[in-house]
């Protein structure tokens, strides 16, 4: 029918062939436009998804949810209660020893604490202090923790020091004598083999960056102080975490029921007497 029409117009088969090719070219152009449109839409979808992901991550990191904020408050209150119970139970808070303690210089207090620590601490012990913080963020629960690995060395993670000191590093045990609110706890029934594995796990994290996301303790690419200690023990069969959320405050090492107290920074009458006896016999 189309061919008869073209013959009447004088186009013949040649004109029919040209029109057929023109139709094919038009279809090809339309197809290319559709493909181009699909590519553009795909790129826009990917870009939007990436932007949304980054925005969500930023919001999560900068603004913990209400549940996490409530958890943070609860942990801080719990920490304060437990520390008050502990330090109110030691002899330094009794009237019989207050007068002796207040007459000690800060240098002498530090010397007595150093002597107590060095005569108490063992490899694998967990050090906790509330006289220092590893992070200055408002969303940090407070306090600091470290793992003693022997030879007067503690592995710790900081996020509020000079850039060269931040992250997981080796620190001197000697610093802990200056903390007025400090504890050392020891894990029940941990064998020497287990303790050595815990120390090896902690050493493997040296120079990893500090983790400022308190409620992200499951990452292993970066660590905050108590997360580092927890992870080192967790990898070797011990879990001290009490929170249902993904966080591990330093106080959990003391309240977990899996450790026992071997040192407090409080100085009692007995500490003072034993310190002077020790050095008088040297």
Structure commentary:
Helices cover 50% and strands 12% of the residues. The protein has 282 residues and is α+β, with helices and mostly antiparallel strands. It has a six-stranded antiparallel sheet with strand order 4-3-2-1-5-6. A hairpin with an 8-residue loop joins strand 3 and strand 4 (167-172).
Key structural traits:
alpha+beta; 282 residues; single chain; 9 helices; six-stranded antiparallel β-sheet; 6 strands
Give a concise summary:
The chain is of the alpha+beta class and 282 residues long. It is built from nine helices and six strands, in the order αααααβββββαααβα.
Task: Summarize the topology.
Layout (H helix, E strand, L loop, with lengths): L1 H8 L2 H51 L3 H24 L5 H8 L3 H13 L7 E4 L14 E7 L2 E6 L8 E6 L9 E6 L4 H12 L21 H10 L17 H4 L3 E6 L4 H12 L2
Antiparallel strand pairs: 1-2, 1-5, 2-3, 3-4, 5-6
Helix pairs in contact: 1-2, 6-7
Task: Indicate the proportion of strand residues.
Answer: 5-15%
Largest sheet: 6 strands, antiparallel
The total count of strands amounts to: 6
Q: Spans of 5+ residues with little confidence (pLDDT < 50)? A: 1-11, 43-64, 91-99
Oligomer: single chain
Numbering strands along the chain, what is their spatial order in the largest sheet?
Answer: 4-3-2-1-5-6
Note the gap between the termini: 122 Å
The shape is elongated
The chain-level mean pLDDT equals 78
SS element count, helices: 9
Rg for CA atoms: 33 Å
């Amino acid at each position: 029918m189309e061919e008869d029409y073209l013959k009447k117009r004088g186009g013949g088969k040649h004109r029919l062939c040209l029109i057929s090719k023109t139709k094919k070219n038009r279809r090809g152009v339309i197809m290319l436009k559709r493909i181009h449109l699909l590519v553009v839409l795909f790129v826009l979808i990917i870009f939007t998804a990436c932007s949304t992901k980054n925005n969500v991550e930023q919001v999560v990191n900068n603004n913990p949810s209400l549940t996490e904020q409530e958890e943070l408050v609860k942990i801080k209150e719990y920490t304060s209660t437990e520390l008050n119970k502990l330090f109110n139970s030691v002899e330094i808070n009794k009237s019989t020893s207050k007068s002796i303690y207040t007459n000690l210089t800060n240098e002498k207090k530090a010397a007595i604490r150093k002597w107590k620590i060095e005569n108490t601490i063992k490899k694998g012990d967990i050090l906790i202090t509330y006289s220092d913080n590893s992070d200055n963020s408002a969303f940090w629960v407070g306090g600091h923790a470290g793992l003693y690995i022997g030879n007067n060395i503690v592995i710790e993670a900081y996020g509020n020091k000079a850039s060269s000191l931040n992250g997981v590093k080796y620190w001197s045990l000697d610093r802990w004598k200056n903390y007025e609110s400090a504890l050392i706890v020891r894990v029940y029934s941990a064998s020497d083999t287990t303790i050595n594995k815990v120390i090896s796990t902690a050493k493997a994290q040296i120079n990893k960056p500090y983790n400022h996301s308190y409620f992200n303790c499951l990452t292993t690419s970066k660590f905050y102080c108590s997360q580092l200690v927890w992870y080192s023990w967790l990898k070797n069969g011990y879990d001290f975490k009490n929170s249902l959320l993904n966080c591990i405050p330093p106080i959990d090492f003391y309240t977990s029921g899996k450790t026992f107290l071997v040192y407090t920074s409080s100085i009692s009458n007995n500490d003072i007497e034993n310190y002077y006896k020790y050095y008088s016999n040297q």
